[in-house]
Write a structure and sequence with these properties.
577 residues; alpha/beta; Amidase signature (AS) enzymes; eleven-stranded mixed sheet; 23 helices; 41% helix
């Protein structure tokens, strides 16, 4: 170690010379002097100092809160930014000693080969021996440490890091041929998805010590060789606790948008998944959606997000809102990676009543780049109200697509909230009983317990209240009533899309961000959102392709063609280095 040590512990100067000097002194000391500390002892002292020195120091966020007090969007008027319960030193300390050994020279060499590159390109570089899976993991950790430890640049997106990920990467380097494309790729998980070795908090203090096994989709990722890099922040309880700012949780603090920290909304609830992918903290991330929770943060962070057909991916091991509408989904920098990640998570789960068993013929990472002859439905009201959407439709026409403007049929979606309320009232106890290994120590068994737990320290645990949890307890919808609501809304959702699709023989309907997420949710239809461009303010915007059940392959082909046409995504300028 060549840097000069000038560190104080308890007011005592430990060392005032470099370790290079120590090696010189080792040769020059007298026999009597040599009885003193050796170089090895000095190095050990340095290591002990580093263990005690904080990597991160908490700060007073009141000035930032004050600056946002008059933000034009009410949900951007924060009550807190920094978590009051998460010690980042505990998150970042275990891997620090190895991360600091990753040299700037290696980082600069790898940067053009990794930053914004797709999985096939990265795998090609690894197969050519330009770097290893271990190097790739360290590359992303280097970026996380560089941006997440300083309070001036943190996105508050990392809640946990896998302490074993570097050894796991070394193991994968020993056998790197003939695997799924996801092999060796560092992936981040939304922190409502179970992963062994890291707690699964859903951002809630009530679940802060929740220890689980791997969720089904995480098992599939590991079976295919993916590296689970860590966990990311989210809107607490997947945005079903209050009308809170998107991306805030009592555990993780306030997630911030890399395209404009405290300027632009992160979207939610998969805020950490969106921001971490946008900032290139990992190859990809996994989010979850009930209604808009993948589509919204993907749009706000200029990343590709897929809300798959309900049942295509297992929900077992994921903190629930609704067993009717919940689904995990991939969030990536490009369409190709999205298909690869989706494919790596698929599999029939006998413990998930909606899981489907089939071998789909689609090429999940399609390379089609031709839009000629494709037929798209464009919402008339978006054509009239959004100039970027309207200009995009003209670009699609020039590329050979046919655009049919339509007005969706008028259908009602009342009762939607009761699906979420009653499902969560039933599904949360089921999750606790079946997925949590230490349920007794958590002291919660159901929604009522969570509400009472939060009230014991409302300033820390629920700074924005828990109105949605109160609503769950107040909802008296019967089982028979709920069944009728679910069937009616599914029919209405499918009518909303199928009417224009069938009438005009459409390949897909085109929406914006998460604007039609609720209808897609109740219809159980897939939706793929792809970067579209940026507003004059710099805020990202996505085009969302919606198709019928199990047409993910078609969506990927269309999304890839659109991505190739526009090349819209740009890395956030403050996170380019």
């Amino acid at each position: 170690m060549k840097r000069e040590i000038n560190q104080f512990v308890g007011g005592t100067v430990l060392l005032l010379f470099t370790l290079q000097s120590c090696h010189f002194l080792e040769k020059e000391r007298t026999p009597e002097q040599k009885k003193g500390p050796s170089v090895a002892a000095v190095e050990k002292d340095v290591e002990e100092v580093e263990k005690k020195e904080p990597l991160w120091i908490s700060y007073n966020d009141s000035a930032e809160i004050a600056e946002n007090a008059n933000h034009e969007k009410e949900r951007m008027r924060y009550k807190f930014i920094q978590s009051k319960v998460l010690d980042k030193n505990k998150v970042f300390r275990p891997l620090h000693a190895e991360v600091v050994k990753f040299t700037d020279e290696t980082y600069r060499m790898m940067k053009p080969l990794v930053l914004e590159q797709n999985i096939p390109s990265i795998q090609k570089h690894i197969s050519e021996g330009k770097f290893s899976y271990l190097d790739l993991t360290l590359f992303y950790l280097h970026r996380i440490y560089t941006y997440e430890l300083p309070n001036e640049t943190t996105l508050n997106t990392i809640i946990a890091l896998n302490p074993d990920v570097l050894q796991q990467a070394r193991n994968l380097d020993k056998n790197s041929k003939g695997h799924h494309p996801i092999y060796g790729m560092p992936i981040l998980l939304k922190d409502n998805i179970g992963a062994a070795g890291m707690n699964t908090t859903a951002g809630a203090i009530a679940l802060q010590e929740n220890k689980t096994d791997d969720a089904f989709v995480v098992k599939r990722l590991k079976e295919n060789g993916a590296l689970i890099l860590g966990k990311v922040n989210l809107s607490e309880w997947a945005n079903f606790i209050c009308e809170c700012p998107n991306g805030q949780s009592a555990v993780g603090g306030q997630t911030l948008n890399p395209y404009g920290r405290r300027v632009f909304d992160t979207g939610g609830s998969s805020a950490g998944s969106g921001t971490s992918v946008a900032a290139n903290y990992a190859v990809a991330a996994v989010g979850t959606e009930t209604s808009g929770s993948i589509l919204s943060p993907s749009g706000q962070n200029s990343v590709v997000g897929l809300k798959p057909t309900i049942g295509l991916l297992s929900r077992t091991g994921i903190v629930p809102i609704s067993s009717t509408l919940d689904t995990p989904g991939p969030m990536t920098k490009n369409v190709t990676d999205n298909g690869i990640l989706l494919d790596a998570m698929r599999g029939f789960d006998e413990n998930d009543a909606k899981s489907v068993q089939a071998n789909w013929p689609e090429n999940w990472y399609a390379e089609e780049t031709n839009l000629k002859g494709k037929r798209f439905g464009a919402f008339k009201n978006y054509m009239e109200s959004d100039s970027i959407y309207r200009i995009t439709m003209e670009k699609l026409k020039v590329a050979g697509a046919t655009i049919i403007e339509f007005e969706p049929p008028e259908v009602e979606f009342n009762g939607f909230l009761s699906i979420l309320n009653i499902d969560m009232k039933n599904d949360l106890p089921h999750y606790i009983n079946t997925q949590i290994g230490n349920g007794d120590t958590l002291r919660i068994k159901d929604v009522q317990d969570v509400v009472e737990f939060n009230l014991q320290d409302s300033l820390i645990r629920i700074p924005y209240g828990q109105a949605r949890f109160d609503g769950i307890l107040a909802d008296t919808t019967s089982a028979d009533g709920l069944k009728l609501i679910k069937q009616r809304l599914k029919n209405n959702g499918r009518t909303y899309f199928n009417t224009p699709m069938n009438e005009h023989r459409l390949d897909a309907i085109l929406s914006i961000n998460n604007y039609d997420a609720g209808a897609a949710a109740v219809a159980e239809f897939p939706a793929l959102t792809v970067p579209l461009g940026y507003k004059d303010s710099g805020e990202p915007m996505n085009l969302t392709f919606i198709a019928k059940q199990y047409q993910e392959g078609k969506l990927y082909a269309l999304g890839k063609a659109f991505e190739t046409l526009t090349k819209a995504r740009k890395i956030p300028k403050e996170y380019k280095d």
